[in-house]
Write the structure tokens for this entry.
Amino acid sequence: MRSRPAFYSSSRRGAPAGESASAAASADASPEAPPPELSAAKRRALPAPGPRTLWTVIGLLALSLAITLSLAIAKPGQRRLTQEDIDAAVMRTVETHVLPSQATRAIDNVAPSVVRVMSFVKNTPEIAKARAAREAAREAARGGERGAKPGPKVPNLGADKEAKKADEPEDIEHGVGSGVVIVDKGIILTNLHVVSGADRIRVTFADGTESNASIISVQPENDLAVLQAHKIPDDLVAATMRSTADLAPGDEVVAVGFPFGIGPSASAGIVSGLKRSFRSPEGKQEMSNLIQFDAAANPGNSGGPLVTMDGEVVGIVTAILNPTSARTFIGIGFAVPIENAAAAAGMPPF
């Protein structure tokens, strides 16, 4: 996706072809300069070696090298190297050295580009009450699942202090997800639902650098958001994106992100299907043309990259299918193809 500067040869431009060839031939084929006692006129009269002379010298050198090698191979008592020897050496290396897995290579390639994305909202009294109600409901549900009875109330010395803070406007965590750097100027792809409704967004880069970020573009139909970090590391690396045109069921993939805020974490699996559709549990949105995969993904993986074994991004993890209220991974995840994600960022298609 990113344009790279062209590589130019170091040869000089503008010199006539004959002059260039003559200079190269003179430099390579004249082992020593004319004797100093020759006059300038005589030096000008000396014929310069032409291309035929140069190729003759090169041919003689090549012939000399071939004869030397043949003599070395034909030395008495020396055994010639066979294909069986090469195969044995390779097998020996495989048996005595632990080679990194393909997944390891994929993770190493994309890890410098993966970021943690956190969204915050102002802690207004209404939000504080709603959050307290949700926490109480979750705690009651956990107690019911364990069959435990309420324990004795433990005094909380800081309760009064915390109660006062609850009424003060301060940022509280609203959501956590993942993202991937696609341009080394700090442009990041993530899911829209990770940052939607946030008063403040903070990203953490692979080297630990933290920065606030702003939303610069959204694509609601594909649950995508593009962020611009306000501060970036000096050596920030953008991920390599790859077309999904040749992606097929059975291709190995790795999902990298921050499930439940833990990470960066990685899980490996395969592409389970293509052009899938998914409707959110609330039924508010239906997405199509998704990549189905079975690499483990959980809340917090949203917005993270789905990559090939070369570490190239083919999708942005966006949803998991779980018909229960647990909202955890049961083997079916979905990712938005990178073509859609690139379009959200205003980048040209593959």
Remarks:
- The longest helix spans residues 51-73.
- Residues 240-344 form a domain with the Thrombin, subunit H fold (CATH 2.40.10.10).
- The radius of gyration is 32 Å.
- The chain is about 30% helix and 25% strand.
